[in-house]
Each structure stands twice: as structure tokens, then as C-alpha cells.
Amino acid sequence: MSYNPRRALLFMPADDLHKINKAATLDVDCIIMDLEDGVAPDRKNAARQTAAQALQTLSFGRTERLV
């Protein structure tokens, strides 16, 4: 088992493409796109689509991505 220490984890609501775009430019170890608490119930479907789009089109470099 290996251990990968992380300095910074950045949480953001997955329905906010502006925040996701900004996060892709930051020097953080892990970007976490929240689909639960950070997203209003009526925005859940949009959040899933936005997260999928971001993961397919944005360059996050070596940053770990979690949804």
C-alpha cells in the first residue's frame, strides 16, 4: 500500500463551471467537485453534466480530480 500526502484539497460545487475553470489553474494537489451538499437539489442533474464536461475538456495537469 502506498501513501500519497496532499498539501491542499480544494472543494467546490460541481454545478459552478466558473469555479471549476479557476480551480484547473491553481497549484493544488486535489480538486473535489461536490455533487451532494454543495449543490441545491434542483441543480443535481446540471452538476453531474458540468462535472463530466469539465473532466473531459479541461486540463488539470497533475492535479488529482475527485467527484
TrEMBL record:
Residues of the HpcH/HpaI aldolase/citrate lyase domain: 7-61
Keyword Lyase: yes
GO molecular function, one term: (S)-citramalyl-CoA lyase activity
Parts of the chain that traverse the membrane: none
Example GO biological process: regulation of cobalamin metabolic process
Family matches, as Gene3D superfamilies: Phosphoenolpyruvate-binding domains
Zinc keyword on record: no
InterPro entries: Aldolase/citrate-lyase_domain (IPR005000), Citramalyl-CoA_lyase (IPR040186), Pyrv/PenolPyrv_kinase-like_dom (IPR015813), Pyrv_kinase-like_dom_sf (IPR040442)
Keywords for the protein's UniProt record, in alphabetical order: Lyase, Metal-binding
PANTHER family attached to this UniProt entry: CITRAMALYL-COA LYASE, MITOCHONDRIAL, CITRATE LYASE SUBUNIT BETA-RELATED
Protein name, per record: CoA ester lyase
